[in-house]
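Comment on both lines for my students:
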Amino acid sequence: MSADTKIAELLTELHQLIKQTQEERSRSEHNLLNIQKTHERMQTENKTSPYYRTKLRGLYTTARADAEAECRQAVIIRVAYTDIPMPLALWTLEVSTDLICILRHALDKIAEIKSLLEERRIAAKMAGVNSDNDPPRKTMRRGVLMTLLQQSAMTLPLWIGKPGDSPPPLCGAMPANSDYVAKQGDKVAARVKAVDGDEQWILAEVVSYSHSTNKYEVDDIDEEGKERHTLSRRRIIPLPQWKANPETDPEALFSKDQLVLALYPQTTCFYRALIHTHPHRPQDDYSVLFEDTSYADGYSPPLNVAQRYVVACKENKKK
């Protein structure tokens, strides 16, 4: 089966999953609306009568039964009653929901589609490199490259684990395992020698890895197909493969004042920076302070950098 055919099939399946998501939301909406209205009436009357207690138990029992019948995957839903003087101030229900299963399945489909697209891009790139008959490829315009980097950061998948799961390596600030080898096409931070002889960290794409020499071949993302570097593993830092959710996995984020390497906005180079504030929502960026001697305190004003382009710094902080 060709990659195009497989992608078309996956897109069709994804469309059906999106329709199922809406159907599940609509199906449970009526019961959830009744629960909400009952809570509102209880708050208005500022009391919990036997009638309301019995009604709520029935509504929650129905919601639980519906969910358990649809899926085995459990999540914890805590329903807190505020400003109501009652013994059941906090209800904790272990509820299974088909919606979560559908969303997880949809995320798997999206990841598979992205993987196929990346494989096709790499194959086309390698075919262009190995072909002597094709005309020289034009360098990508700067604005187009910056837009693609921004889109890559926005579409980085969010890690959604099962209850009790810990964030995996390469989720947010979680480092790669010591034996991890980046795959062809993966984006990395690479330490290379600049034209003036100084060393700098650049955004690069993995071309290959040699297990015999323990070295990578990488392309400078800003000069794709023109400038290639052969680097040892210690000069490579894999970029995150998932965004960390600050609401569920705060331990997978860099902490305030932690020294990092961050991609300077509108460039393809990583520079040392301090974390000013970390993301508060999954879609938020880090706010970082780049080292900059042109400022009195040695740091730039806060600048936003996506989770995709913030990695642990292997160097010591300047004194």
Remarks:
- Residues 3-100 form one domain.
- The helical segments are 3-45, 50-70, 98-130, 142-154.
- The longest strand covers residues 199-210.
- The CA atoms of residues 15 and 106 lie 9 Å apart.
